[in-house]
Amino acid sequence: MRGDLTIRKVRxxxxxxxxxxxxxxxxxxxxxxxxxxxxxxxxxxxxxxxxERYAEAHCRQPNLFAENSAPTPKLDLTCxxxxxxxxxxxxxxxxxxxxxxxxxxxxxxxxxLALMRIIEPTSKLRTLELLExxxxxxxxxxxxxxxxxxxxxxxxxxxxxxxxxxxxxxKEPFSLMLYDVTTLYFESFKEYEFQHSGFSKDNKPQQxxxxxGLITTRSGFPVMHEVFEGNTFEGHTMLAVLRRFQERxxxxxxxxxxxxxxxxxxxxxxxxxxxxxxxxxxxxSNTSIRFIEQIDSTLPRMDKALRRFDYDHAVExxxxxxxxxxxxxxxxxxxxxxxxxxxxxxLERNEPGRRAKFVKKSGVKDKPFIFDTELQAKAEKxxxxxxxxxxxxxxxxxxxxxxxxxxxxxxxxQAFRMSKxxxxxxxxxxxxxxxxxxxxxxxxxxxxxxxxxxxxTGRSLRKIRQELWRVHEAQIxxxxxxxxxxxxxxxxxxxxxxxxxxxxxxFPH
Length: 509
Description:
By secondary structure, the protein is α+β, with helices and mostly antiparallel strands. It is built from 17 helices and 16 strands.
């Protein structure tokens, strides 16, 4: 005890030992400073020494016996040696974020693997090296390969935590959910039990892949995912994930928003049968010429003009909302002109025309390819027009509102971009189905943490990571006494940007 201040050691949920300086007044304990969390006895000794110095310097009531105590020698920099630099502050902050996302009960190995996707995503072996290098946290190589596949057993627990975080902390009503699909490729040309070649969104058609389906809230926070074999048609993925989500949230029937790849009669009929409302992007070029002519003749070519049409009598209650946009028209027209020019150039050079949109086979031996005037006329009528299919009546949701909800899909697309770029989910180096699912689940946890921080702070994950990483702990050893002093950089900048205020309940400073 130092005056009115006491040094306290607390065992945390993750198994670490937190060292705090506290003040006890009238049976009330107040945390004055959280010194840090230790995972080894050496780290604990360093933190206790720092706590002693802090308490001595900040106590309101001087120690009555201070005169009888030997004075603590001041650190003489001429006799000091820098023996280490760590980033424990960043790790503790991200562990605090994991706890805020409801992941506190998971083994710390899984949390470390997830937070390293944010800090420096790399292979599992390299991750072990970086954990020791940056944080003095050590795991045996055999431990990670033995424990990694077992995280799959925690998938339900992790996704339940995501749903509860979205509902209770982020206040998401689940009235509208976003669904999308992406592909992840492997650094291999050999197919195994789970990865197969298929339509690649990574432009890697020759490499095996898997398909990932993801459900997010309207703000882009991930709540559920599923892994499918690489040759699975993405339109066949939505119902499986949606049914699992429905089992977790109970009686809530959200509006499902998905892109055009999910548009099939079977999907819409099943969604209608199970009582779901949906908003799905339409592929107008696949509709009949009669329907396109109806759109062309009734939809004004004015910016933001829209019309609602009966979509398909085989799908009950389905209607299509078509909107014309000046900006979209200019984009479509540029692409249309390029495609027409390319087709005419290929035909003029008498080259095979399968690489051009407006070229088709003629069936004539002397002139095997001709310009497709019917397709050109069809494409010209659709310039600047986008379609949206829904089963929500106009009296419940206007066409403008339907389009606004559909545009929220950028949140789930942004979540995929984050996972592929910032978290580097791809490429995947695992081969067994269990290891692949474990890798994707680790990345899902990192995505939860990253999106939580972005939503709460209004900053990008890259910027948050940069700010956390600026804080170092320097370990300076006094060569006269052998005592190691730990000096942490100032964290006031993090307080100003709101990151520490967000994590203060889990990681007070």
